[in-house]
Amino acid sequence: MKKILTTLVLILALATGICAQTLDTEVKVTGKFEADTATDAETLTFTFPGLIHDLYYYSWQVVADSLTGATAGTAYLQETLYPSDSVFTNLSGKTLTIDGAGQSATFFTGTCYGGRQQVQVVTTGTQTLRIRIWYTYVKVK
């Protein structure tokens, strides 16, 4: 399952045209990730495919749809301030609680001063969950 998701993320990153791109001259960048299903207890990570070397406003929209079972989990917006760093930390107040049947959704917005960002979704229990994520970065003038 992880190999399939990794392949899907790579394909989507290439499709957005910004894989391994450095954000220092782009004015606006948008894209999306979609995982058809997260099943049972699983951790999925959706990392912005570029490196951020300037001041940008960001917006991440996270939508989790319960398809079957007892849906439970949390989505976190995470950041590292150094592009080469592989250790991400949760940003304070940037969480989405996924609970119950139906749809859970939120926007994470703010200012990114550099480095990289990602959304990590941690699910628990027995469920099938569809996750969709859209992101936008706009350079601060």
Strand order of the largest sheet: 2-10-5-8
Helix content: 10-25%
Shape: elongated
Query: What's the CATH class, please?
Result: Mainly Beta
Tell me the number of helical segments per DSSP (H or I, 4 or more residues long). 1
Total tally of structural domains = 1
Sketch the topology as an H/E string, one letter per element: HEEEEEEEEEE
Examine the secondary-structure arrangement and name the CATH architecture. Answer: Sandwich
State which percent range the strand residues make up. over 45%
Query: Using DSSP, what is the number of strands?
Result: 10
Structural class comes to mainly beta
**Main sheet record:** 4 strands, antiparallel
CATH topology-level fold name: Jelly Rolls
Radius of gyration over alpha carbons? 15 Å
Poorly predicted ranges: 1-20
Mean of pLDDT: 80
Distance between the termini: 42 Å
